[in-house]
Amino acid sequence: MKDLGARVKRKREQYDLTQEALAGRVGCSRIMIVYIESGEKIPSLALTRKLAKALNYSLDELVNGEVRV
Fold it and tell me: Which pLDDT score is estimated for 35?
C-alpha cells in the first residue's frame, strides 16, 4: 500500500495542496495524511473514497495505480 501513499502525495503536490488542506477536504488530521503518504497507515475504505474524490482519481486508480488500456 506504499504505492497508494505515493499516489496521494503525487496528486496532492500536483494540485498544490498542503497536507493540512487535503486533510480538511477529506475530514481527517494532517498527521493521518502524513502516515498515509509514508505508507505507515492504510486508510479505511471510506477515507480512501474521499481521498480519491478530493484528488480527482477513480477509486480503482488510487488503489491500484494508473489504468492502462
Answer: 97
Query: What does the alpha-carbon distance between residue 66 and residue 44 come to, in Å, rounded to a whole number?
Result: 20
How does pLDDT run across 40-64, given as a tens digit for each residue?
A: 999 999 999 999 999 999 999 999 9
CB atoms within 10 A of CB 11: 19
The pLDDT confidence band at residue 65, using thresholds 50, 70 and 90, is: confident
- Convert the chain into a string of H (helix), E (strand) and C (coil): CHHHHHHHHHHHHHCCCCHHHHHHHHCCCHHHHHHHHHCCCCCCHHHHHHHHHHCCCCHHHHHHCCCCC
pTM across the whole model: 0.89
| Dist. CA 67–CA 40, nearest whole Å | 25
